[in-house]
Amino acid sequence: MNQGARSFLAEMIGTFGLIFFGAGAILQQQATQSVGTTGIAVAHGLAILIGVYAFGHISGGHFNPAISFGMWMTRRIGMGKMLVYWVAQLVGASLAAGILGYLYQGGPVDVHLGAPTIDPTIGSMTAVLVEAILTFFLVISVFGTAVDPRAPSGFAGLAIGLTITVDVLMGGGLTGAAMNPARAFGPALAAHYWQDQWVYWIGPLAGSGVAAILYDRFLLARA
């Protein structure tokens, strides 16, 4: 298997894990009331932590079209590679959501297989802002721990996973704290629930682009 195929498979499996465990925790909470907001946040964070340590050395451990977009914006990957990663991430998310739909047949329908939703008190434009800010800090964490050569080695997975956790703790009740178009797309596809789907593309891509350019241009040391 060539490197491109290995990267595709790594991104697909890693994104599958994020949706399977993250959205799965939401479904388990809805079904049993045993997980809670903190448990849901930890499930998302640990899924990413595991994925980064398992696959970061193979594909970079993006598992998120917004992170791949930030890498493209700073010319760390080309357009073709970014699009291949997007396909892998969307396929992985969709497969995981499809399996969750099978496991929870007739179960907690009102959470739409864990698809993120917007609190009606804030509206869609505010939701875009929330998703952009949450993703901004996620991508800052990625660049600060996985991209910057000055970062101490071995901590990227932990730092990125913890960033996901605090993001979900803060924003989960407002927007679902997707920070990731694939995280929104997979459950939406399986549940046929497309409400405000655009928010989960515009917000994360905007936040990622700003964070990536800011870190690359102003915080990254130049030789």
Automatic annotation (TrEMBL):
The keyword Membrane applies. Keywords: Cell membrane, Membrane, Transmembrane, Transmembrane helix, Transport. GO terms for cellular component: plasma membrane. GO terms for molecular function: water channel activity. It is found in: Cell membrane. The chain crosses the membrane at residues 7-27, 39-63, 83-104, 124-143, 155-178, 198-215. The keyword Mitochondrion does not apply. InterPro entries: Aquaporin-like, Aquaporin_transptr, MIP, MIP_CS. It is a multi-pass membrane protein. Belongs to the MIP/aquaporin (TC 1.A.8) family. This is Aquaporin. It comes from Eiseniibacteriota bacterium.
